[in-house]
Write a structure and sequence with these properties.
Chain lengths: 358, 435
Amino acid sequence: MFYREAGQFKTSYKADQAIFPILQDRVGLGLIIVLALLVPLFGSDFLINSFMIPFLIFALASIGLNILTGYCGQLSLGTGAFMGVGAYSCYKLATIFPEVNILVHILLSGFFAAGIGCIFGLPSLRIKGLYLAITTLAAQFFLEWCFIRIPWLYNYNDSGAIEVPTRTLLGTPITGPSSTPSVRYYVILALIIFLAWIASNLIRGRIGRSWMMIRDMDIAAELMGIKPLNAKLSAFAVSSYFCGVAGALMVFMWLGAAEVESFSINVSFQVLFMVIIGGMGSLIGCFLGAAFIFGLPIFVRALPDQIGVAINASTVDHISRMVIGALIIFFLIVEPHGFARLWQIVKEKLRNWPFPYG
Amino acid sequence: MRLKSLVMGVAASAIAVTGTLSTAATVAAEELYIPSLSYRTGPFAGGGIPFANGFADYLNMLNARDGGIGGIKVKVEECETGYNAQKGVECYEATKGKGALVYNPLSTGITLQLIPKAPVDQIPVLSMGYGLSAAAIGEKFPWTFTYPTSYWSQMSSILKHIDANGGLKGKKIGFIYLDVGYGKEPIPLLDQLGPKLGFEVAKFPVGVKEMQSQGSQWLNVRKERPDWMIMWGWGAMNATAIKEAAKIRYPMDRFIGNWWSSAHADLKPVGSSGKGYLGANFSGIGTDYPALQDVIKHVITAGNTQTKAEDVGNVLYNRGLFNAVIVAEAIATAQKMTGKKAISGADMRQGLENFKLDEARLNELGLGGFTGALSGSCSDHEGAGSVFIQQWDGNTFKKVSDLIAPMTDVVRPLLEDAANKYVSDKPNWKGQTCG
């Protein structure tokens, strides 16, 4: 009943091909965006800084990996390293050209990640599946090694860490310690909405369709005139671009300083879990997966304090690890296709309600 | 199917409930709130647990014995960081709004993240014997303290010890370190002092992932044949390094760990094969101090703790306790200076700059001979503390040297250079002028 599109007539091709052809979806999305804009008015700094900002950044990284793994079918374990490439190149750009606006640097830094991603994507033309995962793992270790061993990347800093300078947009600091969480949140939100819009259009278009053809059956795709070289490398490039921008945002808008540890293999796995739990080949799944994987530990850790039970910090940490592990297994058993599929089922039920067999 | 919908329902309602809960917690007004960023999990827990215990136990002892500091209670709240900078910042964000007086992150990685935040939030950072060495320069880092000494000063004390035991000139010093911000911190000093004092340095980095398999590093040590080995290790790295050193028959009495690489937790698994191993330290060993007896009486036997009784008096336990002593002294000083009982982070900064821990005061606290005299000032945020060298006898540590003062004349200019370099690319950085 709620999702019935009855009565919504499409009278032009444009209306038929809109991103959100159903009115309910447009209203829902509008509501979510309004809510997202209102968060800083009601949420505490902790909520914004420790949940909303990293959630959006990881959602962007998941979109990047989802393009590669979910849409093009190329398994990658190098996400953390590609994020690192974005972060380090953004840092270098920001120190070499301090007069250019930091947002330009953040968006440019993705191109460096895309270039590196293309290079490490070359093996995908010859090998598939788990073997490709191993070569991307090599990318992860090689790039981590670079971040430690090439001191030029962190400006010969004694500590080996990159530190974010304060930069302003229209007179308001948006990076560095003096920027307020709300400002950073709005900047990130705007960027994420923009980039997610680009991603959704890419996926719907010719390029995205060629990715999906490669994913579903590469030989058939080749016979139909899709060049695997172009399709696979463009997937690596676009995916790494998104990951790189996410990495730059992570350091400049969230952490404020980062060592190589921030881009370790654990990050790669975390983002991969977000994609798997959220749903392969789904953009909304990226957001749901990021919220689940990143938010759940924070929620579990905060819970005993909220309900007034005093438990040792370390015990809470142990419990949260166990609970999260159990929940991931549970969700994968009841819904192997991730949260995106759950959302689809919910939509279906809403459409049919109150006549379940209608 | 029914179970599935039940769990889904619970999950959905849990999400709905948390949406309505606010994360801002309420704090009792009359309380001194000290967050303790501890790590009792992960590969570094071996060092994190005793330190966090010593820190909490001393402040809880003050609560039980004196009713707090200046008549109001201290509340220590632990937040688990796992030695991870990201989680450390998360802890910082979660606790800073509750009236936190000072942060003791016990991690150089977390300290580096907090240094730029401290002036903005007006909460000082006390990185006791770790963190950024350059923070010792108070003019440049008003909100950061490295009492009782910085890594660079400690390294100079260790070099002094080597000089006194056979000379430095023409020697080859091997430096094995954990390849993170912490381990890399003293390298600029070694590189600059090497040519000056006429010794050669061979560096052996150990990545966090290979912490427990250092075969290749020690193979290199065997090739390089350094006259002395100095270690900047932490967590599981230490015991592994000492075991590997024993395997290649490196003379233990030529192997010096810094103050984070020579604790009971590191040497216990090695046992007698680590006999002779040296380590730097700045806090007393054992329980033969009246203050520690008070801790045992009021906290340990009262059961108000997570500490195992046999751990009291261990190197890292006592160091955590010493950290709490500095915090308590700074609070008391700040209370005296401001006349307020419940002080703020800014008052705490004043207290940290002005407290005096001389011999008389140490005796008064029941810690006579526990450590060298220590006092801060506006420009000196490391307190020029000294270290002593201790030796593992197969069972416990014994103090084998007097207090060795750092080479302040050499180190201070280098620290100033480093501080200037840190500040140089931060145009809005606020220092202070000291009269």
